[in-house]
């Protein structure tokens, strides 16, 4: 089975089904499309997130979904300021999925409104976290995916489906697609 290493918290967001599109600057080989893919959490610990007590946590990380992976502690130097620090899996396979398609990010159309993106439908509807594929035109995805990837031009959207969380299995990751002996 092929595997792809993602930094945390992105790997765990995939394992929870919150992130279903991985963006990359490169396309995988055509033989990887339609095949199972293991999602590996890299070994690097994400930085702490500091949030004053009277503010909401940053939207870029879905802390509600990720609550079991972040520990919260008060900043002793700044009373009323809290730190979210990573307590989740590192250096382990955390999910399996199917790489259903890879499309240029310029072919994505977003449902709802987000930062100037308007809804452009194809006669169907999309549900959050489920890519809608069509051979008649662009791929329509929900704008909730937007904070979890780099959707600038000249990049590729890897569409993931059939995501299954697995208890962390220690493994050493690699760059690019690599072979994982499940």
Structure description:
With 182 residues, the protein is mainly beta. The protein has a domain of 81 residues: Hypothetical protein (Archaeosine Trna-guanine Transglycosylase, Chain: A, domain 4, Roll). It contains 1 helix and 11 strands, in the order E-H-E-E-E-E-E-E-E-E-E-E. The strands form 3 sheets. Strands 2-10-7-3-1-11 form a 6-stranded mixed beta sheet. It has a 3-stranded antiparallel beta sheet with strand order 4-6-5, with no helix packed on it. It is globular. About 13% of the residues have low confidence.
Separation of the first and last Cα atoms? 7 Å
Q: Strand share of the residues?
A: 35-45%
CATH class of the domain at 2-44 and 90-103 and 156-179: Mainly Beta
Largest sheet: 6 strands, mixed
| Strand order in the sheet with the most strands | 2-10-7-3-1-11
Rounded radius of gyration (Å) = 17 Å
Order of helices and strands: EHEEEEEEEEEE
Blueprint of the fold:
Layout lengths: L1 E5 L3 H6 L5 E4 L11 E6 L7 E4 L17 E5 L6 E6 L5 E13 L3 E4 L27 E4 L13 E15 L6 E3 L3
Parallel strand pairs: 1-3, 8-9
Antiparallel strand pairs: 1-11, 2-10, 3-7, 4-6, 5-6, 7-10
Q: Summarize this, please?
A:
This protein is mainly beta.
Tag the structure with descriptive keywords.
single chain, 182 residues, mainly beta, Archaeosine Trna-guanine Transglycosylase, Chain: A, domain 4, 6-stranded mixed sheet, 1 helix, 3% helix
């Amino acid at each position: 089975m092929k595997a792809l290493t993602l930094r945390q918290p992105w790997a765990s967001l995939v394992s929870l089904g919150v992130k279903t599109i991985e963006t990359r600057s490169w396309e995988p080989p055509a033989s990887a499309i339609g095949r199972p893919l293991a999602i590996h959490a890299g070994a690097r610990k994400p930085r702490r997130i500091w949030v004053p007590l009277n503010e909401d946590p940053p939207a870029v990380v879905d802390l509600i979904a990720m609550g079991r992976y972040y520990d919260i502690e008060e900043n002793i130097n700044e009373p009323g300021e809290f730190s979210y620090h990573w307590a989740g899996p590192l250096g382990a396979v955390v999910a399996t999925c199917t790489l259903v398609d890879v499309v240029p990010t310029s072919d994505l159309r977003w449902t709802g409104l987000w930062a100037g993106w308007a809804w452009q439908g194809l006669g169907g509807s999309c549900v959050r976290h489920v890519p809608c594929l069509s051979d008649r035109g662009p791929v329509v995805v929900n704008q909730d995916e937007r904070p979890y990837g780099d959707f600038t031009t000249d990049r590729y959207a890897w569409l993931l489906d059939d995501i299954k969380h697995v208890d962390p299995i220690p493994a050493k990751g690699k760059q690019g697609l690599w072979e994982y002996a499940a």
